[in-house]
Each structure stands twice: as C-alpha cells, then as structure tokens.
C-alpha cells in the first residue's frame, strides 16, 4: 500500500528537526538513545503530568456530579459531552494534528490551519446552536439537553485556534509549554464547576466550567507561544487536508466507537441506565486517558522522526510500556470493582459494568499505539479503516445485545475491542517496518509475573480485611487494596527489570 506524503519538500525540516541516524533501537535497548529519545521520554513525563492534572480535575468534577446528581442527570452530561467531542474533531478537520507530521513550510501551514479551524469550528457552533433542541429530543434528553449542548459548543472556535499552537509545540518537542495552557485551564474550569455544583447549579455547572476552560486555554496558548495569525496558502491547505482528513476521520470514528454505546443505551434503555453505564465506563476508560494518550501523545512526534525498521522497534517499546503501566489498574478493576459503591448505593449497576470492562483500556490502548505507528509511517488512511472496522463491528454487536442491559453492553465493548486489537497487531506486522509481535509478546513476561503477584496480594489483603471486620466498601479498605496491588506489582517489576528501569530514568535525566 502506498504511503501518503504531505505536500512540501520531502524532508524540509528545521535543523533541530532533522531525522536521527538510522541505527535501529531494539525494544530492550532503552539506554541506547539519542536526544530525540530523551526528549520524547521527558515529553511522556510532561504529558503524564498534564494527564494527571487535566483528567484528575475532570474526575473530581465527575465524582462531584455523581455524588450530587441523579443517574439520569449524569446521563445528560454524557450526551452533551459526546456532541461536543464530535464537534471539536470536525472543527479543524485534522489540520492541527497534521502539523506534527508536516514536511514543508510549517509556518505557512500553521496560518492556513488557523483559518480552516476558525471557519469550520464557527460553522459547527452555529449549526449545533440552532439544532440543539432537535438533537436533545432525538437523544431523549429534552429536559435541559438543548441548554447543555449550546453552552458546551460556544468555545469550539477558541479550542480550534489553540489546537494549532499546541500541536506546533508538540512538533518541536516543547512539551512543558505544550501542557501549561491545557492543564491550567482544566484546573480553573474544574474549580468553577465544582463550586457551582455545590451551590445547586446542577449540570450547568459543568457547562460554566467548560466555557472558562476553553477561553483560558486559548489565552494561555498565546502567552507560551506567539499567536498564529490566520492566513491562506492553497498548497498548504491541500496538504493539510489530504493528511488531516483521514487523521480527523480516524479520531471521529474513535469518538463514535467510544460513544455508540451511549447513544444506544440512551435510546433503548433510557437516561437512568445511561447514567449507570456512563459512570462504570468512565472509570474503566480513565486509564486509557491518563496513560495511553499520554504515552502515545509523546511518542507520535518521535516516531515521525524514525526511519526504516526503527519505527517498528520503537512501536514495540511503546506497547510494552503501555502494558506495564495498565496491568495493575486492570487487576483492581477486575477484582475490586465494588469499591465504586463509595459514591453511594445508587450506583450498584455501575459496579458490574466496571468489572466487565477491566481489560478495556489495555486492549483499546494496543489499538491506539498501533494506529499512532501507522500515522507516523504515513498511513493515516489505514488507521482510519481500523477505526471504521471497530465502529462497524461494535455497532452491529450492540444492536443485538443492548436490550439485555448495561452489563451485556459492557462485555460487548470489551470483546469487540479485543478482537480489533488482534487485527491491529496483524496489520502492524505487515505494514510497520520492523514490528515483530512475537518479540514484543516475549518481552511481557515480567509484566505477567508482576500481575500474578499483585492478584495474590489483593486476595490476601481482602481476606485480612474480612477477618478484621473492615466494611466491604470503605475508604480504608479501598486504600489498602490499592496499595497492596500497586506496591507488590511495582516491586516485582523492579526486581525483574531493574536495569531497564534505571536506563529509562537515565534517558529522562540526561535528555537535552
């Protein structure tokens, strides 16, 4: 399959962006790295910090709403967020993401991307403003749904402009500046939302927080980087759209794939069931957001600089790191989901949803990492087709099982996503140079051993808690279970892979 090249000189990059030498980096050779690897490693740490801050703030808002609102109201929040996520992707047509891969004059391309983002995001805002009542009715969210949608979409133009600046900083591996606007905006927006929620404003507190976050993100983006003014270059527009359209298409398909269950549950089972499902899904999905998007976000610009078989070898490293980070969280979700009842007995159904989706973030993360490798190899169209296959398979399966309840929907998400991950690995074997799935699987034995030890630790602490008379669901028991899993897992992984951990830390410490 032909690889797509964005219009422009084949490798017309700034001096500090020249490709590294072509020596292949083996998955286990963490120490044999240059400045790009170190900057990418530091980038992963900065992205991790950003992910913890941003998603931590969003989680506090979610838990506050879950504790103060009925499940039906949380379902309304889920539907409004879905509309905005879809609109944000369509708002810039993938042109901001294309800047990371861009091979020509990036300054002209950035100005063109701002123009495209402003026009398309403004058009999307107007369209959704006037169609909000019809959308709310179609999604069975008549009670306040239109106001939520209208309030959430007003910042789409600001977010589209800010995205151009943020992706320019990611291209340059300037991760600290990249995260400042987003992290600060998220924290301030969360504070506003939580304060208003405690004052009885309900779901509109989330709307107010999102508006504050969107405006502040744009203003701070202009502080850390000179504003990119609108401009127009026809050749840049063609190149941005030729790469960005399938890039945005893949992102849009991902959002639809992650939310088609919401749509069907809302339509068939109603707002109360959607609230239950939404909470369990969001907790299961959180490791993906906090870890997978962090690691792959930092890895993408680095992979774009690799050539030949080193792309596949680097992709194996990313997959191994993701598996190691996600494993203990999967153990907790599978064996201790009842701790979710700390939010109240009204969320009993969400516990079964969380247990059914224990592996969801991991298998979804495998697919995401492979798609990032495909994008870095100039094959965004293949990544988009993987998303389309996932969405089609999931939609058909959910139509069959949705009337069986939210737990059946959760199991269907996990099974279909697992099947998609297997297909993605097979595609990477054929299209990503140097990728060897057998070598990658062999590298996972320390993770499997550490996971087994963590399971035993959880079972022991659980039994001890019963013997001491600790409540089955309590803050103390939840903390003890979490500490038991995380400490035993980390200790086992350190014993079996201490050399690699030290080498990885050396890369971060010594990066230029």
Give a description of the structure.
The protein is mainly α and 512 residues long. The chain folds into two domains: 33-443, no CATH class; 444-512, no CATH class. The chain contains 18 helices and no strands. The protein has helices spanning 35-68, 71-92, 95-101, 106-138, 145-153, 156-171, 175-198, 204-224, 234-268, 271-304, 310-335, 348-356, 360-376, 380-401, 406-431, 437-442, 445-468, 475-510. It is globular, with a radius of gyration of 22 Å. The two termini are 37 Å apart. Mean pLDDT is 78; it is low at 1-34 and 503-512.
Note the topology.
Blueprint lengths: L34 H34 L2 H22 L2 H7 L4 H33 L6 H9 L2 H16 L3 H24 L5 H21 L9 H35 L2 H34 L5 H26 L12 H9 L3 H17 L3 H22 L4 H26 L5 H6 L2 H24 L6 H36 L2
Helix pairs in contact: 1-7, 1-10, 1-18, 2-4, 2-5, 2-6, 2-9, 2-10, 3-6, 3-9, 4-5, 4-6, 4-9, 5-8, 6-7, 6-8, 7-8, 9-10, 9-14, 10-11, 10-12, 10-13, 11-13, 11-17, 11-18, 12-15, 13-14, 13-15, 14-15, 17-18
